[in-house]
Amino acid sequence: MELSRIVITGVGLTAPNGTNLSEFRNNLLKGVAGISRIEMRYMGEALAGVCDFDPLKYQRRKELRVGTRAGSISIYCSREAVEDSGIAFEALDKDRVGIYVGITEHGNVETENEIYNISQFDYDTKFWTHHHNPRTVANNPAGEASLNLKVTGPAYTIGAACAAGNLGLVHALQMLQLGEVDFAIAGGVSESIHTFGIFAGFKSQGALAEHEDPNKASRPFDLARNGIVVSEGGALYTLERLEDAQARGAKVYGEIVGYHVNSDATDYVLPNPERQAQCMRAALKKANLEPKDIHIVNTHATATPMGDIQECDAIKQVFADCPETYVNNTKGFIGHAMGAAGALELAGNLPSFEDNVVHPTINIDELDPKCQIPNLVVNEPIEAKRVDAILNNSFGMLGINSALIVKRFSD
């Protein structure tokens, strides 16, 4: 049976340097980052990527009090994507709409806050909120979006560490091809800056970035890189079968043509370049493409010393002789948005199908010799001869790897 072709017809996002695709893309091309200092409980000041979207655009104040930050990000991005798609959403059969949201973790924010609150009352549990359970269940971000949009089809999250943004898209593609849904909202979200546990955990590992200038703190591939900048954000897309999109005259951002997911099974944190390379090769095989057919490889690199080196080794294994393949990274602009990272980073590159411009990797003052990659785009955009295919890497703790390939749409 020939599988349906799946296309992207809408994009909704919020990032530390933009609240829609146009603003986000413009800032990527202009070198504008969005990192700031925040006050973190028990830790003092910390560097973080904070989003500036208006949650009241699609929610009431009561809903904000009852719900979660991850839920608000999901609602905002879902609504923006649906509007961008141009579909007559109210006329859709909501039983045939699916919502698939990738997340790194969920519930830590609410639990930390609620424990802190009752600590002010000598841990008397009568002060524990009855909203705790629906706030902390793992399906919350997708569930809040389903409530807001009145979607009655399958709505749930995919926990895949920092590969989750890609996995949300993969899962939506599969459900569309299986005929389980006719319209999908998918991608990834993160509320990570609101939990001190993530900051404290990275700090105890020696993996939390520090820099006097917040916007230079996230430095993938730079010799002086010293760790991760934790960020919040989200990017959700509308996905449709090609025949359905064409029937309603929808604009098409690109076609998802290949993907792969595998696991290292070697370490809790340290990536395995052999398995990462295997993941990219398998995605290329599914897409029926050769490495030289890819014009942008968006790296996952988080600015940790060994993680960046391992991914560079993997990329060199796969794209060693590809003169028209450019490599870039988005985390210098926005930090590491965890479960949203892969989805946001893909969004920043999608406009390259129209303008053939590859956004740069910023904050590289001195490239680490161990991170030398052919055609790494450094500090300034580059105009390519063409951009017909993008490979989006997204990797996560406990060794999960994902690669997603999107092509310029053509009949």
Provide a descriptive summary of the structure in words:
- The chain has 411 residues and is of the alpha/beta class.
- The chain has 2 domains: 6-247, Peroxisomal Thiolase, Chain A, domain 1, CATH 3.40.47.10; 259-406, Peroxisomal Thiolase, Chain A, domain 1, CATH 3.40.47.
- Helix content is 33%, strand content 21%.
- It has helices at 21-30, 61-66, 69-85, 108-119, 132-136, 140-149, 164-177, 196-204, 242-247, 273-287, 305-318, 331-334, 341-349, 352-355; strands at 6-14, 35-40, 44-49, 97-103, 155-159, 183-190, 230-231, 233-241, 254-263, 296-298, 326-328, 357-358, 382-383, 389-396, 400-407.
- The strands form 3 sheets. It has a 10-stranded mixed sheet with strand order 5-4-6-8-1-9-15-14-10-11, sandwiched between helices.
- Strand 10 (296-298), helix 11 (305-318) and strand 11 (326-328) form a beta-alpha-beta unit.
- The protein starts with 5 loop residues before the first strand and ends with a strand.
- The model has no long low-confidence stretch (mean pLDDT 97).
